[in-house]
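Lab notebook, bench 4. The sequencing result for the construct came back, and we need a structural model before the next group meeting so we can plan mutations. Quick request posted to the team channel:

Model the 3D structure of this chain.
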Amino acid sequence: MLFWPFYYWFTRHPRYYGILNKFRTLHSVLASAFSGIFFKFDFEKKLDKNQTYIFCANHTSNLDIIIFCILARGRYHFMGKEELTKNPVLGIFFKTIDIAVARESKISSFKAFKKAAENLEKGMSLIIFPEGKIDDAYPPVLQDFKNGPFRLAIEKKIPIVPVSIKNLWQVMWDDGAKYGTRPGIVDVYVHEPILTSILAVENDEVLRDEVYGKIDRELKTER
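Done. Here's the predicted structure in token form:
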């Protein structure tokens, strides 16, 4: 309720998106701290705050969004499922700064990635979970990645940052309804960015498999 007026105002025009994201970061820090949930970021290589990136991560919890509101800097946006437009909080973002996509619709997917490409050209980093959804498996198993973000990264010559969110599912899996939520420290491993400027579009599956492998190997170190 406290943040709503700021969100409403700063989603009115793209020129305010940098400010909007600062409020999203502040909101995320406060919400996680009051919940007793803290994030420990381990960087393989320091990120350039002025660089546009495509962040790709595994997806096991609704709190994954909070992680990237803290991790990302400047003008960034999410791509997520269309159902989020109906969420009373997230809906305001997925109707403005963020991109909603109907998972089973090729037309919706085409339009979503077209919009993402336009945003990347404007210097807005993209945050995407290439599994496409939180799977029903518990404990979580990393699911196959979709090709879209990797082809986009090559076409726009944007570095990809793989991110392994290691133990968040133990703190809150999915929305927390089934197994509950508890305080804790979440380990997040941020891999070195992968440069895409020398890759051909035909290498999108190779890039996909490389990102999948990096995330998967790091996740397995928690077990």
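The beta strands are 37-43, 54-57, 76-81, 99-101, 125-128, 160-165, 184-190.
Will bring this to the meeting.
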